[in-house]
Structures are given as C-alpha cells and as structure tokens.
C-alpha cells in the first residue's frame, strides 16, 4: 500500500514557484524561494501556469530528472506553480499502541524484557542454555536472579539451599531453579518461613554427588522439588 506524502506529520506535498523572465521552455533548479525542484516520479507532479492546470504529456513532460520540460515558451512575469507529491510505502510494522502479529522470524540482538504473560506456540529453543551459578559456600538462599539458572554447589561440607517466603523474595509463580550437587557436601533443601516444599516421599536431600533437582514455584509459598532425592 502506498501513502502520498513525506509522512503524516510533514504533510503531503511541496509547492515550487517560478516567475518567468521570458522564453523559458523548461523549469528546474531553485525556485523563487530558493527551493530546489526535486521529484522521484513525474506521475505525481502537477504544473499550473498563471493558475491554470497544464496537461501532463501535452503541455509539459517530466522525462528529464527533476525538470519540467516541453513547455510553450513562457512570457515574462508568467508564474508557474509546480506541486510535487512524494510517494513512499508505509512500513510493514506492528503498532506500538495496539499490538499485532508477526508472520515471520524475528531476530533480536540484546536483551528482551517482557512484562506480562508470554505464550509460545511451537518449540522454544534456548541456544545458550541456562546460566550457570557456582555456589562455593555451604549455604545458599534463592535470589530473584536465580530464576532460570543452574546452580552448582561445590562445597565439601553439608550444604543447605533455602527457598525463602514470597514476602522476602517475590518469585513469579512458575519460576524454576535447577540445583546440582557438584561437590561432595550433600545438599538439603530447606523451606523458609511459611513455605511448603512438595517432593516424593517428602525427601529433600540430593542423593549423591552430581544428583540434581528442579525447584518450581507452583503457588505463592508452595514449591515442587523434583529430582534425584533421598531422605
């Protein structure tokens, strides 16, 4: 679809005025106001002589770039008005205020911040995988920045991983954190105040080195702990 005009904010046409000195059969370059005649498509040019509209292809032509040619010799003080309509295609864009649908691939360089729910119809592929966090101490309390991460505990002493209440750290429902026991210190998951941890047989310890579990928030203060767990 085409739109006539430079843009909705700048108007749709440009006027050029030339006062003849006598004998001119073509008009180009700077007009009476110092504006240089430019047009990209002669189809979108109107020419008026002393207020009378001339006929394109009969009274003048636009065969030469940015030039009105083929005029009958002008008389001194004749005033030619040339009206140029710019033509361009409206960008194939999705409205910022009303939203819309993309029908093809989208490539984004940099971070993508989304406020609200995200629905993916198809297979989501994370080329870079989960970010890895190494925990060297014998205790860790989940942080909001841990969401979507892969935490490796490396301490040789027994290690506690605490899941805090929503009042302390407001994780979104659906948040997931993966924990793997990379060291020899056995990992125990601990519920913060008011937090419920659901797991098979209520087991909340990783069974051995390189065992792992996924912690998923399913309600305000309720998490499921799924993985290689033991009593």
Describe it.
The chain has no helices and 19 strands. The chain has 231 residues and is an all-beta fold. It has two domains: 2-89, no CATH class; 132-230, Jelly Rolls, CATH 2.60.120. The strands form six sheets. Strands 9-11-13-17-18-15 form a six-stranded mixed beta sheet, with no helix packed on it. A four-stranded antiparallel beta sheet has the order 2-7-4-5, with no helix packed on it. It is rod-shaped. The model has no long low-confidence stretch (mean pLDDT 91).
Number of strands: 19
Overall pLDDT confidence:
91
The neighbouring-strand order within the major sheet is: 9-11-13-17-18-15
- The assigned structural class equals mainly beta
Q: Supply the number of helical segments.
A: 0
- The unreliable regions are none
What number of structural domains do the residues give? 2
Biggest β-sheet, characterized?
6 strands, mixed
User: What characteristic shape results from the CA principal axes?
Assistant: rod-shaped
- Kindly report how far apart the N and C termini lie: 68 Å
CATH class of the largest domain: Mainly Beta
At CATH level 3, the topology of the largest domain is Jelly Rolls
Chain oligomer state:
single chain
